Amino acid sequence: MLGANKLFLAVATGLVLAAAPGAAHAAEQGVTADSIAIGAFGPITGPAAYIGLAGRDGAAMAIKEINAAGGINGRKLNMTFEDDGHSPARALAAVKKLVDDDKVFVLFNVAGSNGTIGTIDYVKEKGIVMYVSFASAPGVTWPFAKNLFRGGTTEVPRYGELYAEYIVDGMKAKRIGILSGREEYPKNEGDALTRHLQSWYGIAPVKRAEFNIGDKDFTPQILGLQEANPQVIAFFGNPAEAAIALRQARELGLNKPFFVGTTMVDQGFLNAAGPVAEGVSGFALIPLLPDSSDPAMKAWHAKWSADYPNLPPNRPNIFDVLAYSDMYVLAEAMRHAGNDLTTASLINALENLHDYRVGPIATPRTFTKINHIGNLRLQPMQVKHGEWVQVPWESKRPSDILQRYH
Amino acid sequence: MTWRIASQLALSGLSVGSIYAIVALSLAIPFKASRVLNFAQGELVTLGAYIALVLTSYGLPYAVMVPATLLIAAASGLLIERLVVRPIIGAPEFTLVIATFALGLIIRALIRIHWQDNVFFLPAPYAGPALAVGPLRVNPSYLVIIASTGILTALLVLFFQRTKLGKAMRAVSFDPTAARMMGIRVNTVFGSAWALSAAIGALAGLLLAPVIGINPELGHLIIKALIAAVIGGFGSLGGAIFGGLLLGVLETYTGALFGAALKEIIPFAILIAILLVRPQGLWGATPARV
Fold first, then answer.
1. Which residue from B16, B19, B119 is facing A272, i.e. has the nearest CB?
2. Residue A84's domain is classified under what CATH number?
3. pLDDT (tens digit, 9 = 90+) per residue, B152-165?
4. Confidence check on the interface: ipTM exceeds 0.85, yes or no
5. Structural domain that includes position A252
6. Confidence (pTM)
7. B250 to chain A, minimum CA–CA distance in Å?
8. Do A219 and B263 touch (CB under 8 A)?
9. How many C-beta atoms lie closer than 10 Å to residue A275's C-beta?
10. CB-CB contact of A339 with A346 (8 Å)
11. Considering just the CA atoms, what is the radius of gyration of chain B in Å?
């Protein structure tokens, strides 16, 4: 039996330990007294590098501003970036390195769907928060996972809903041809459009043609589409492929309107496609494209140009803006989580964000305890006189996707 | 499949094949002269396209830009031979392959530093709306590629058969030691071969630029060009052309009949099938039986 003195010492020690802040649990990985480690990844090599490079640079610019303004609750943000080469296997390797070796607190994902799908199971298992800015892969937000959040892009079935409604009700087309890439994102969008054409309108595409990423000739696909005589052709792929396909379509006499996926609603596509882009429609992920003359975008563009004076044409693109905006969303949530920053407190803070955006250049983000899709708005656009301009159209149909979150 | 579609596919296949053919041609030259398989040749095509892009951005007229591009590319080829290839020419073949592969990666990475992965299309005076040939449509840029490949092949045949340097290249390719003993300056021949190969690669790049655009991944064409060269018979100029055209047509018809997935498999399957029957390629010389 313990002597009285030893008993007193034991009790006193226990009380002191219990009273010490943070003593009840180990320090959160990636969070120190003065820093927060953010692990980011995306493709900065290969055909999808245009999204990863912009994602990295947009996020870095936001971090620089946040740190200059004092950081988050006195802590500076430090970002470590890994290239995933747009491959699921490399993305998984990148995430493992960030989590296990670099010991980051949170993952900021500026990868495409192709890379992202390789990471989802691992991130769910680890329980670390992953904030996905670009990827529309359904697996990010369905089935629901407490630690996965989707920012700039919406879930791919929502794309399918909006595309179907716009093409059928807005463009008044019933005969629709689809030309889509075989990799994750364009395939998902093509599949989502096909599903919703069928479920909402009882329409099957008159032709679905596929191509491989990096393809330079689309003659077989275009001839097949031409034979099917569509009223509208929906194209899902990368801007470079879209430019070549559109040019070849016009060369071969296929002059029907094109509807393109969101990655084409950007200046880069217009620069590559030239005059043949006139009349092309699509949805934008952000309210103001980087070349907009809106004062808010011009001011942001000037800041961006000051940070990156030597970058080539087609930059900044929409992914610069998305990543910049989404880094501010993540930072705002970390701010609300307070000094005791943990994965649980970050999740709670994100789920209590309502209509937050860094400014007019972004769409607002709202998360709830059961819905981690932050953005449900897409803006229809059309190329007129060589520029993407907003189309005055709004969706009228209630979303099937949103029902599952109620 | 209607006759119109079949004919259009054939035309498209020949157009795509001509791209593979001209790159295969540029691959065959250094092999013919120095027995080195240059895995950086794809990047030399890319480099040529970017050189043309830069010179165009300075406002050079097309008629001046083209020879300037070829000269700069030739100088690059000479530099590569002198600094990278010549010091290791006696090394095992695998070493040479790895060295050229690494060189290609370096060139691609350097290009990315400034231009990243943006796509650019080079304006060309012959580019324009598709020409109608009966019910068929043909991009005039592809006609220029096909014509250029034909003219280039004819010039190269004359070069290797009638000129002193061309004959010297053939001699060095056959036996460098004997060639040296006959008074041929082997190092000069090597340098000339690499300069010529780089210039042809640059020509391919600036012909492709108005059609498929310029980006750092342009050099991936080297894989298809290599297949074309092997199918035709490595080292044979005519074989490179035939292999490229055959590959382009087969790929296009496969895509039309069986879809995009099989389009990537068929070229390799054909390569294996041909090599099993004729290891020297369709136009390559039959190896002597011992």
1. B119
2. 3.40.50.2300
3. 989 988 998 899 98
4. no
5. 157-284+380-403
6. 0.80
7. 12
8. no
9. 10
10. no
11. 19
